[in-house]
Specification:
Elements lengths: L14 H25 L5 H8 L3 H7 L3 H25 L3 H17 L4 H10 L5 H16 L8 H10 L11 H12 L35 H7 L2
Helix pairs in contact: 1-2, 2-3, 3-10, 4-5, 4-6, 4-7, 5-7
GO molecular function: DNA binding
InterPro entries: Homeodomain-like_sf, HTH_TetR
Keywords: DNA-binding
């Protein structure tokens, strides 16, 4: 089933054109992963093009904007996240499933240099990644129904991983100890509610990437790329 963040190829493409477009797409994504993994979203499309060994027009024909490129980077991870949260939400042991999901996300972030960039992008674009957010919220609701005592939300879980995000990439794996302490606190019996959290910005003002290095005039369209793929 297509996800909201997935782009479907135009029916006019033949097999060779689709293969060429897919190769170029992977070439650009790999370059963006390498650059953003070290520097974050400040990387420009010109730098991505140079890293990929492609011209700017080829990059913009494949990804019409930097946010479209990040949609792809985030979407690849979102598919996996959706599976984790969906499995947790369907588990007979909802509390154990929530804890298991948190450990799984911690392990993923331990080896993903784009974890911080992608997480913030997904939170700022809930309308695009709605299925992931809904599955996570369902898993947390079921944990509450099963007796999770604190007023923990799905976003609390995401932000907890964010706070720990510097630790997973440390060589000693110290994040596991901190995660265990956090999880113990989740299940502590307390009468007082947790502090209110500030709302996360969404929409255009929360864009992680801006097209400050786009060529003059409109960027080449995806349709133009489809016509010339091959």
């Amino acid at each position: 089933m297509p996800r909201p963040w997935s782009k479907q190829p135009l029916e006019s493409l033949d097999a060779d054109q689709l293969a060429a477009l897919a190769r170029r797409r992977e070439q650009i994504v790999a370059a963006a992963e390498r650059l953003m993994g070290g520097r974050g979203p400040a990387v420009t499309m010109a730098e991505v093009a140079a890293e990929a060994g492609l011209g700017m027009s080829s990059v913009y024909r494949t990804f019409a904007s930097k946010n479209e490129l990040l949609d792809d980077l985030a979407g690849r991870r979102a598919e996996r996240w959706l599976g984790i949260w969906t499995e947790a939400a369907a588990s007979d042991d909802a509390r154990a499933a929530l804890v298991g999901a948190m450990w799984t996300f911690g392990e993923l972030e331990a080896v993903d240099p784009l974890a911080d960039v992608v997480r913030d992008y997904v939170l700022a674009h809930r309308e695009t990644f709605g299925p992931v957010m809904e599955a996570g919220e369902a898993a947390v609701r079921r944990a509450h129904d099963a007796g999770l005592p604190r007023d923990i939300t799905h976003e609390d879980v995401i932000r907890a991983i964010q706070v720990l995000s510097a630790l997973p990439r440390s060589p000693d794996g110290s994040w596991r100890r901190v995660m265990a302490i956090y999880i113990d606190g989740m299940f502590a019996e307390r009468d007082e509610p947790l502090p209110e959290a500030a709302a996360v910005r969404t929409g255009p003002d929360a864009e992680v990437l801006a097209d400050d290095d786009a060529p003059d005039g409109d960027a080449p369209s995806m349709h133009a790329e489809h016509q010339h793929a091959g």
